[in-house]
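Tutorial handout. Part one gives the primary structure; part two gives the three-dimensional structure as tokens.
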Amino acid sequence: MSFESYIARRYFSSGRYFISVSTWITIVGVTLGVAVVCFVMSMHNGFEAEIRSRLLGTTSHISVFPLGDPYITDYRQVVRQLETADGVLAASPFIYSKAAIQSASTGDGIIVRGIDPDLERRTANIADDIKLGTYTFEEKVINGDTLPGIILGRGLAGRLGVFIAQPVVLYSMSGEDLQRNSRPRVKKFYVSALFETGMFEFDGQQAYISLTDAQELFRVGDAVTAVHLKLTDIYRASELAPVIDSLLGFQYDIVPWNVLHQNLFSWIAFEKKILFLGFILIVIVAAFSIISTLVMLTMEKRAEIGILKTLGTTPRSVRRIFVYKGLLIALLGMLGGWGLALLAAYVQNRFRLISLPADIYFISYLPIETHLVDFVLAGLATFLICYLAALYPAGQAARLSVIEVLRE
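Part two.
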């Protein structure tokens, strides 16, 4: 232990009552600042991870769209080729279109996905998100009619006022010549299951039907809208996209998830940076308390500083003593802030005290996910701010005149 750090520790625990209280108040201020910064960063990490997990569980890691044509006609061959690619777990085709839906009580406009249930189970989480009913599109006799199944989001089913085994009707004008007296195609289904992803937009607007029923309803023939892939590692999506493009002969538009949802995740990342800078202001406010605390300590320790200089202590060593005390405050505040942030994260994840309105956000509660890098960045920023704050009072202490102090 150096001479300067020893004196700094002695000064930390000594002094008048007012200065001691001021020191601890400053530590509490730094603690709260670090805790808020770390908690907000962890909140954004959790929010982003939850959104990514649910989006990719409902959509895909990489989507393959037709290039120049509205549909993919050779989708079976495309699926076989894609599943041979390194890093691809599975591939499944789907049809994606808008339609009108009608129940016995009301109607609405929705988004319909036509899927192969066996292939979709391997690439998406829809089967795991079923809350009521059975994940199937098999035909069933309902009130004397043989109807195929349809899977609705729980929010959509609630809005339509339908439940399991009740009939609904889909209407589509896709593929019709609107110049003629065309009528919408109508197909009746029964509700085979209700799913809930926890994402309001999906649960309230999406329905699944079989791929063959979708091809018939939307009049696309033996074709699909796109093919989506599930990867072994979602963070390799951008790396694998050009490989897949080459495998398919550059005939399709290959879109990884981070491009497909670029606006959403770019906004989350930008907001995280802005909030980090904003909440660092709390630490800066606490740094002003460090300045006042060290200035008061300098005034109280004038005699001791004079004695130290008389004994041969250099101004540089005196400056270090006060800088070390400022950094000691920063260290205690940083450790306390880390602990407080981790405790708050545990409590929120365990008891979900902070909820979110599902009709505004994708999720219904605030998830917290701590990252070491965020805590380290907050700690480094705190040390830098506290170091800069300690320089002025340390400089004032170093410039004290021995003659003036001894005269007093």
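Part three, for discussion. The CA atoms of residues 98 and 111 lie 4 Å apart. The mean pLDDT is 90.
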